[in-house]
Design brief:
The protein is mainly β. It has no helices and eleven strands. Strand 5 and strand 6 form a beta hairpin. The chain is globular, with a radius of gyration of 13 Å. The termini are far apart.
Length: 116
């Protein structure tokens, strides 16, 4: 059974918006910081955003002001609201759990394609 399942990806035009979700099936979701990563075509996987267990948020500079990471601990769900999307945002987006300084569990990803 997958611990994290991402959804919400798809094809969107430049300037558009999408909201990604990551449903977690594990205990004590609220006690862990969570992260979104992405991997674009021909690129290395890169960090996008992190949310701490108390709701503090941190962003990659190129998405700050356009993306919003949030969590609903009652639903064991992580979100990434993305707006003003551009072609450079095209990637597979993954959610992952921080366990201390290590990312120990990953989802399988959801594809986001920004194209006209």
């Amino acid at each position: 059974q997958a611990l994290f399942v991402e959804s919400g990806g798809g094809l969107v035009q430049p300037g558009g918006s999408l909201q990604l979700s990551c449903a977690a099936s594990l205990d004590r979701f609220s006690t862990y910081a969570m992260a979104w990563y992405r991997q674009g075509p021909g690129k290395e996987r890169e960090w996008v955003a992190t949310i701490s267990r108390d709701g503090g948020t941190f962003y990659k500079s190129t998405v700050k002001g356009r993306f919003t990471i949030s969590r609903d601990n009652a639903k064991n769900t992580l979100y990434l609201q993305m707006s003003s999307l551009n072609t450079e945002d095209t990637a597979i987006y993954y959610c992952a759990r921080w366990h201390g300084w290590v990312l120990d569990y990953w989802g399988k990803g959801t594809q986001v394609t920004v194209s006209s």
